[in-house]
From TrEMBL:
This is Sodium:proline symporter. The lineage of its organism: Bacteria, Bacillati, Bacillota, Bacilli, Bacillales. It comes from Alkalihalophilus marmarensis DSM 21297. It comes from the Bacteria. GO terms for cellular component: plasma membrane. It is a multi-pass membrane protein. Keywords: Membrane, Transmembrane, Transmembrane helix, Transport. Coiled coil: none annotated. InterPro entries: Na/Glc_symporter_sf (IPR038377), Na/solute_symporter (IPR001734), Sodium:Solute_Symporter (IPR050277). Belongs to the sodium:solute symporter (SSF) (TC 2.A.21) family.
Length: 462
């Protein structure tokens, strides 16, 4: 079937956009300072915390990359397997959350500095900005996909509109407003997916018809991927989640440990619904639309469903894309303000000035994200790059802070540098040898370096 734009769906988008902007403006009036802007005054209850964790993690990475692209390109089983790293990561964060709250830091770089010193903070800030700008970039393009489906607008033009909306909503209210729109988006998405799954299976002619219309490899356990290639898709999301500054900031923003635990349990349950649902919808899309961009797979189904259901799913997808973009943009700007600007440029900056500098950095990084997306062939490609830069460069070192008392400053810093350097070399000059994502190489090397260097420098650190 040929993909035809349906402008009727744009009304659902318009209503959603008005609600999001209204909430953003309303909550922005409650921002009283920089800490309130970054950590929402540490006031998030379990309901809002669950929604913001869910919406932040499940953005365009799932809607246009992740489970969607995996199901469309490789099949239903690899796509469902893509959920496993997230579930494992949530369970580990459940254990780590009280320690994260106890640190009381605005950024992961601040946590690393407390253990490894100033060099680690500077290196962490660089890695986080490199990764998060990449993540924001494909949220922006995901919004371009939505406008392409609803209006026929060129994806590049829609991407500009997406960039403006994401930058605006992140800038006006910070986490104080983002957390509220996240909560709304999270529950909208769960409802939209639950309705869409049975509907799209019926429209596609039933499960047996879907199976008959997809390539034979799409029904196998690995979808034609080698074991190493499949691991290369699974590792990046796990190691991003385990050290993700966005998640750390949200856990630190909860009212107390009890609210944090309840919010994470709700997040886990919601992911058990969302990830398989996205995979099934994208897999059905492969049967209906065999020749579209894999990143369009889920969104394309909105034009063949009843208008009300398609519109609900489209609004839900847009909500996840925008809130994830807001969150990662805000988080990266926080690093620039607290780890670089206030430490090296203006050490005596007032709280008000830090607030406005964070807003300025949101705009600068948003523009940079818009530029970066033009250099990657697919959403899944930039997603794997961004996740691995972070997962190899940050996560081994930050987890060692919580779980390994023998780690040394030299070991932590060496691991961070090695993870970043190996990822960039593997992905850019070498161009992914053997079609393996860098995570298969860079994550194990970063962990080995962390252990070896720490053990060999024990006496120097103590």
């Amino acid at each position: 079937m040929e993909l035809q734009p349906d402008s009727t769906l744009l009304w659902f988008m318009a209503v959603y956009a008005v609600i999001m902007i209204g909430i953003g403006i309303f909550m922005s009036k409650k921002v009283s300072g920089s800490e309130d802007f970054v950590l929402a005054g540490k006031s998030l209850g379990p309901f809002v915390l669950m929604g913001t964790l869910l919406a932040t993690w499940t953005g365009s990475g799932s809607i246009s990359g992740g489970e969607t692209s995996m199901a469309y390109t490789y099949g239903i089983i690899p796509a469902i397997m893509y959920m496993l790293p997230t579930l494992i990561g949530i369970l580990i964060l459940y254990v780590v959350a009280p320690k994260i709250r106890a640190f009381g830091k605005f950024t992961v770089a601040g946590i690393l500095e407390a253990k490894y010193g100033t060099t680690s903070r500077n290196l962490a800030s660089l890695i986080i900005i490199l990764a998060y700008v990449g993540i924001v970039s494909y949220q922006i393009q995901g919004f371009g996909f939505i406008l392409n489906i609803t209006t026929g607008m060129d994806v590049s033009q829609g991407t500009i509109i997406g960039a403006v909306m994401i930058i605006f909503l992140a800038m006006i209210g910070g986490l104080r407003s983002v957390s509220q729109t996240d909560a709304l988006s999270g529950f909208l998405m769960v409802g939209g997916l639950l309705i869409t799954v049975p509907t799209i299976i019926i429209i596609a002619g039933g499960w047996s018809e879907i199976i008959a219309n997809v390539p034979e490899s799409h029904t196998t356990a690995t979808g034609g991927l080698t074991t190493l290639q499949l691991i290369g898709f699974l590792l990046p999301s796990l190691f991003l989640l385990l050290g993700d500054q966005n998640m750390y900031q949200r856990l630190a923003s909860s009212k107390n440990d009890q609210a944090s635990k309840r919010g994470q349990i709700g997040w886990l349950i919601a992911m058990l619904v969302i990830s398989p649902s996205i995979a099934i919808i994208a897999f059905a899309s492969r049967s209906i639309f065999p020749d579209i961009d894999p990143g369009m797979a889920l969104l394309a189904t909105t034009v063949v469903m009843p208008v009300a259901i398609g519109g609900l799913l489209l609004a839900a997808a847009a909500s996840f894309i925008i809130t994830t973009g807001n969150s990662y943009l805000l988080s990266a700007a926080t690093n620039l303000t607290y780890d670089i600007y206030s430490n090296y440029i203006d050490k005596d900056a007032s709280d008000k000035k830090k607030l406005w500098m964070t807003r300025l950095f949101i705009v600068i990084l948003g523009v940079l994200a818009f530029i970066i997306i033009r250099f990657f062939p697919t959403v899944l490609a930039v997603q794997m790059y961004a996740y691995t830069v972070y997962g190899a460069g940050i996560t081994p070192a930050v987890l060692a802070v919580f779980f390994w008392k023998r780690v040394t400053a030299a070991g932590g810093i060496a691991s961070m540098f090695t993870g970043l350097f190996t990822t960039l070399i593997w992905e850019i000059p070498l161009g992914q040898p053997f079609e393996l994502n860098a995570a298969v190489i860079s994550v194990p090397i970063a962990i080995i370096v962390l252990i070896v260097v720490s053990l060999s420098t024990q006496n120097k650190d103590h």
